[in-house]
Write a structure and sequence with these properties.
200 residues, mainly alpha, 9 helices, elongated
């Protein structure tokens, strides 16, 4: 009996996460409504809060799925890639861009959910972001083999922030109304300069 109860609870939790994912994908975080989720899941509103502290916690669970798919897309872009560090950085950045363009609301939710670096960040969330940074770290290490590890970490975060900013502003057309291939060229223009000798 206990096993059946646990299985039902696990099934409801999975169903709620899947429903929340669908709502965020179609309408963003603002589309996440407890009453609607409960109706679709066939449960009481209170049942949601036996599984999740609040809707923000539910959104974080969806973000976990999104991070996993994003990481897989970035990893696939360099799987078997034997190009230069610059080429690998650009390949990963373009994979990031196209993931964001294909799943804009889920991607935005990664950075819009109420969470701060000095707050109670879930370990799986830190691990997912750390794994994404590790992909970037490899080619950056090749470009800067003598860089102090702390400085290297800052460089990785700076490059991620730069690409993220270009993607965010480009997709929202806040820089200029350029098509996707224009955003691709902007990213390449920035990344190809990383570690390049400065003109005398």
């Amino acid at each position: 009996m206990a096993g059946k109860v646990a299985a039902r609870k696990a099934a409801l939790r999975e169903k709620l996460v899947s429903l929340a994912e669908a709502h965020i994908a179609s309408g963003g975080l603002r589309a996440l409504k407890a009453r609607t989720l409960a109706e679709e899941a066939g449960c009481a509103v209170g049942a949601i809060y036996t599984h999740f502290e609040d809707l923000n916690a539910l959104a974080l669970e969806v973000n976990g799925r999104t991070f996993a798919r994003l990481g897989a897309a970035v990893s696939a872009s360099i799987d078997g890639h034997d190009g230069s560090p610059h080429e690998r950085l650009i390949a990963m950045a373009l994979a990031y861009l196209h993931f964001a363009a294909d799943q804009p609301r889920l991607w935005r939710a990664l950075f819009s959910t109420d969470i701060t670096s000095d707050g109670p960040v879930p370990k799986w969330y830190q691990d997912a972001l750390g794994k994404l940074f590790s992909y970037i770290s490899d080619p950056v290490s090749d470009l800067f083999p003598r860089m102090d590890p702390r400085e290297l970490d800052l460089m990785v975060r700076a490059l991620f922030s730069s690409v993220h900013g270009i993607v965010l502003l480009g997709l929202e057309k806040r820089i200029s109304a350029v098509p996707i291939d224009g955003i691709e060229r902007m990213i390449a223009q920035v990344l190809v300069q990383v570690g390049s000798p400065r003109p005398a």
